[in-house]
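**Sequence with structure:**
===
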Amino acid sequence: MARVWNPELAKVEEVHFASTRYWSYNNHAEIDAGPEIVALAAAYVESERVAYQEKLAAAKASIPVLGGDVVISLKAGKNKALNGEIGRVFWVGVDKFARVAGAPLKYGIELAASGEKLFLSAKNVFVVGADKDAHSASLSMGSV
């Protein structure tokens, strides 16, 4: 596999040029791009790295931590009336009763207004001020 610069799409692509299923002659690649193409490819790879690092930082910032403030987001159930309430995380643990793969988290929340304590699934708790899209990305990424 070789990484090549695609001028039409202005991005780096991967090209398969040999196989391990059978003998293939000349199964190596050499850099034959000029310095301007190498510079374009390096700039593209760096911009992709920076974009990934920003997305990762946003996902990490959206994960509730002990002592952090969170907003409750419930659409149904006995605690539906608490939708939009703000609380503080006092406990983090694995949700043993969840019906999804992996080890989803459960949070113990102490409500700021009433001091009531309740335990909620990670999908129902958002960090105050965090982007909800980043929160759902952090859930799908697992433990970041």
Q: What stands out?
A: The helical segments are 35-61, 132-141. Residues 69-141 form one domain.
